[in-house]
What does this fold into?
Amino acid sequence: MYLFVFDLCREYAGRIGALGMVRLAAGRYGYVGSARRGLAARLARHTRRRKPLRWHVDALTRGADSVGAIAWPWREGRECLLAEALVATGTGRRAVPRLGASDCGCSGHLLALCEADLDRLAEALSARLGATPLLVLRYR
It folds into this structure.
């Protein structure tokens, strides 16, 4: 599982799948994903601006600046725990209800980040999850 961190440099307003019209203020966001297989390919996809819209987050990352990613060992259902850990630690808050969570029952996998530093995010989340990150990757 991973947390992909990106900056929206300007407000986003557009339709995203069955979620309908979505509005997001400019700022730093984190998207939680599972990537059971092919973590490197999934992260590379998130950084590309030109791509078909396959997942909810694709509409946002097309116009975003990639900041980095933090990955932990994958286990079933753990991405929902990661999203909850962001809220519980005060490092993030839900940005759009159900975004990225169409295949699970949680409140959503897109969070507006309150903590901008990747190392501090990794530390706080790892302590909450009881897991050591596999990587902390910086794009800039």
